[in-house]
Amino acid sequence: MKTHRSDWALFLASIFLLAFARDIWSADNQLTDGEKQAGWILLFDGQSLNGWMTSGGKPSRTPVQEGCINPHGCGDYMLIHTQQWTDCILALDFKLSKGCNSGIFLRTSPLTPLPGKDVGYNGLEVQLIDTTTAGYQDTGAVYDLSKPTRNAMRPAGEWNHIEITSRANRLEVLLNGEKVNRVDLDQFTTPNRRPDGSKHKFAIAYDKHPRKGYIGLQDHGSDCWFKNIKLLVGTRKSSGNGRTAGKLD
Fold first, then answer.
1. 55 Cβ contact partners less than 8 Å away, ≥ 6 residues apart
2. Which of 43, 109, 127, 196 could be joined to 229 by an S-S link, Cβ 3.0–4.6 Å?
3. Number of domains comprising the chain
4. 84 and 203 in contact (C-beta within 8 Å)?
5. Is the Cα torsion angle 100, 105, 111, 117 positive or negative in sign?
6. How confident is residue 7, by pLDDT bands cut at 50, 70 and 90?
7. Whether the model pTM is above 0.90
8. Beta strands in the chain (DSSP E)
9. Spatial strand order in the sheet of 213-218
């Protein structure tokens, strides 16, 4: 009798764990039930490039590859989502090829490049690059503006998870579950200068930079892959697993 009760308890526990796992983890390029309830939006369906175009407004020349977006060879500086976004949390998985240099662009606006510049100058870039250092141009940096606390990226060929929170003047980068960068754009009041007075390459005062624009995945000459691209609009805070927990502090 005790054995039957133990088996039944084990069976119920297994059912509970399966239900919990289904809520936390889903197949690639799908939302979990919890994410749907929290209001997350899926930006890439894993099968088509519906909702995506190049920064020049044309279809990508590179098709979906094994359920992933690869911006390399897309035909322009980056592949962008066709809708503009403001305050949000962007979550996605990425994998770099050996030696790859890429980036995730936020608030890119307008799409017309400045004279003599590429369209990247019109956005804010979270750097993705196959290095192990933690400088202004390494993974997790807000490119040339703010260094990550450390390089938390896994080696080339392995998948990483990143979450980027944009809220008014603040950007926050969470890489593989670790908070690696936080930037207050209101402190960037002078073109070509960081808040500490050191130089950066952009002739822009970022306290005046648009706070609404396009999300982009950069083609910088090497293969890189993106999947599970999800967005939560507003000011709720991610708990690090695609769920929400309260508000941004």
1. 76, 77, 78, 79, 80, 108, 111, 119, 214, 216
2. 43
3. 1
4. no
5. negative
6. low
7. no
8. 41-42, 52-54, 78-85, 88-96, 101-108, 124-129, 160-167, 170-175, 178-184, 213-218, 224-233, 236-238, 244-247
9. 52-54, 78-85, 213-218, 101-108, 124-129
Provide the residue range defining the domain that includes 226. Answer: 29-247
- Tell me whether residue 24 is in a domain: no
- Flag whether 14 is in a domain: no
Cα dihedral 162→165→170→174 (10° resolution): -30
Q: What is the pLDDT of residues 112-138, one digit of tens each?
A: 999 999 999 999 999 999 999 999 999
The CATH number given to whatever domain includes residue 209 is 2.60.120.560
| 205-246 pLDDT per residue, tens | 999 999 999 999 999 999 999 999 999 998 555 444 444 433
What residue has token string 């933690």? Answer: 134
